[in-house]
Design brief:
Blueprint (H helix, E strand, L loop, with lengths): L16 H17 L6 H22 L6 H7 L8 H26 L8 H13 L7 E3 L5 E3 L23 H12 L6 H18 L6 H15 L10 H7 L1 H10 L16 H25 L2 H14 L7 H11 L7 H5 L3 H13 L3 E2 L8 E2 L6 H4 L8
Antiparallel strand pairs: 1-2, 3-4
Helix pairs in contact: 1-7, 1-11, 2-4, 2-9, 4-5, 4-8, 6-7, 7-8, 7-11, 9-11, 12-13
């Protein structure tokens, strides 16, 4: 076994680099257009929705098929009484909290370096510290149980399917090399997107923790895409792309595990060609997910879907659509503006507004404050079809 940091070389692929860069340019261009006409307040509500969506799909990859409705209840501390289901719900809550805290950190400190060992450990630590201690166990390849220490690298060797990850004695060296190689500040714009994909594979390849490596890698990649400037508003989810074809995701990861194929396959320990193929796959997922979410935000179609929900499903007055539309376009409205927007008299407007708020379609920071848009779980299949499975 290779006994140094070259175990994860090459760090960026050379194979078909120009073709990959063309894909990346397309991804950057599309991401710059997503929801460009949506008010910042409305975009923030969509971001909150995508936060939950990212947790749903990242955990689905791990076999956790908790429904969006159950996740929503868990976020209100309404957990299942079944221990198995409760554990899965806690995983979702933990994922959401870690991602939210990471986004807050990156928003407050634009120069924060995510490529440091402590940050990567903190993702793992913060996730597992939110999981009850009785659930912090995994199994070795021989079937024996081992306790997971939040944020600590493994101290034993493992086999993951057909893959033999880095020897535990080499993890620190490999992770130091990983952090040095993928530091975003040393890369240009196109290289950052390539590095987001390449580092995603390399982190799973090293497999530094006893368990939780996939979730840690996807949370790290989410942070990397923010630092790369391609998903700063959190309006789409790479995990949704991975989860839609879970077997393909694992297959692409496994292919990139291959050693150097021949004398023309780069100069690293691992295959340059296979890493390039993974980065192509990664970038194509970005393009696919950005296109999907962009289609959700086309105003004509979005408003038609909302109108259909209001008129035929909600039990609300048809004039309510005008309120929802106005809030989405302008970010927020004053309560006193509703009679003018809808043509209702004040008494009718107050009754209707009470129903709207009770249904969670609009929210306010204070009892009499301006109204903002919200996307409760029960409207998602009508507002944003195919965002989640039917619930």
């Amino acid at each position: 076994m290779t006994n140094n940091s070259t175990y994860i070389t090459p760090v960026l692929p050379v194979y078909l680099a120009e073709d990959l860069n063309e894909k990346i340019i397309e991804a950057i261009s599309l991401s710059g257009m997503i929801a460009k006409n949506i008010h910042d307040e409305s975009a923030a509500a969509i971001s909150e929705l995508v936060l939950k969506m990212n947790s749903y799909y990242s955990n689905l990859i791990e076999g956790n098929n908790t429904t969006p409705a159950a996740i929503n209840k868990a976020l209100q501390n309404k957990f299942s009484k079944d221990p198995g289901k409760r554990r899965l719900e806690m995983e979702h809550v933990a994922h959401i909290k870690v991602q939210k805290n990471t986004e807050k950190l990156l928003n407050e400190d634009k120069n924060y370096n995510i490529c440091n060992i402590e940050f990567i450990k903190s993702i793992h630590r913060n996730f597992y510290e939110l999981i009850p201690e009785e659930f912090r166990f995994t199994k070795r390849s021989d079937g024996s149980k081992i306790k997971i220490i939040p944020g600590e690298f493994r101290k034993f060797n493992v086999i993951v399917g057909d893959h033999i990850p880095v020897d535990f004695e080499n993890i620190n060296d490999c992770m130091e090399f990983f952090c040095k190689s993928y530091k975003p500040d040393k890369l240009n714009t196109l290289q950052k997107i390539t590095a987001a994909g390449a580092s995603h594979h390399r982190l799973t390849y090293i497999h530094p923790f006893p368990d939780g490596n996939g979730r840690t890698a996807r949370l790290f990649t989410h942070a990397y895409l923010i630092k790369a400037g391609i998903n700063t508003r959190n309006l789409w989810s790479i995990s949704r792309g991975f989860a839609r074809e879970r077997s393909l995701y694992y297959s692409k990861l496994a292919n990139a595990d291959e050693k150097r194929l021949n004398d023309t396959d780069g100069r690293g320990h691992l295959s340059d060609r296979r890493l390039a193929e993974f980065c192509f796959y990664f970038t194509e997922n970005i393009i696919d997910q950005v296109k999907f979410m962009s289609s959700m935000f086309e105003f004509d179609k979005l408003f038609e879907r909302i109108k259909n929900y209001i008129n035929h499903i909600s039990g609300l007055k048809k004039e309510t659509f005008l309120i929802i539309k106005e809030v989405i376009l302008n970010g927020k409205i004053k309560r006193g503006d509703i009679p003018e927007i809808t043509g209702m008299n004040e008494r009718t407007a107050r009754r209707e507004l009470k129903k709207i708020i009770e249904m969670g379609l609009l929210v306010s920071d204070t009892p009499k404050g301006p109204l903002k848009i919200a996307f409760p779980v029960h409207v998602l299949e009508y507002y944003f079809p195919k965002l989640y499975p039917t619930i």
